[in-house]
Design a protein that fits this description.
seven-stranded mixed β-sheet, 11 strands, single chain, mainly beta, globular, four-stranded antiparallel β-sheet
């Protein structure tokens, strides 16, 4: 299964973007999916996860600004990002196929990763 992200781009601080992630197999289901981000020479950071139960986890840095959601009818994962700041600039990755805990602290539990979509926020 391939995960395909879309929706990245360049915005000014305070702006919004909505990322989407769809699996290549429309019948694919994962009990947990998430968004992660990485900037060059820094460790990958968990941004948000959502479980089948609807339980979500967020990085402290994005709480209140980002919202993760799963459209079950289209089997598409979304990340609504509001009040974007320059420090949100990163490559954002969609991930799924979790074995273990579904949480932003456990990126190592995710088996499938997308190619990433770049988000750039200018001052």
């Amino acid at each position: 299964v391939q995960l395909m992200e879309s929706g990245g781009g360049s915005v000014q601080a305070g702006g919004s973007l909505r990322l989407s992630c769809a699996p290549s197999d429309v019948t694919y289901r994962s009990y947990c999916m998430g968004w992660f981000r990485q900037v060059p020479e820094k460790e990958r950071e968990g941004v948000a996860t959502i479980a089948e139960s609807g339980i979500t986890t967020y990085a402290d840095s994005v709480k209140g600004r980002f919202t993760i959601s799963l459209d079950n009818t289209k089997n598409t994962l979304h990340l609504q990002m509001n009040s974007l700041q320059p420090e949100d600039t990163a490559m954002y990755y969609c991930a799924s196929d979790v074995v273990g805990d579904c949480a932003v602290e456990h990126g190592e539990n995710f088996g499938y990763w997308g190619q990433g979509t770049q988000v750039t926020v200018s001052k």
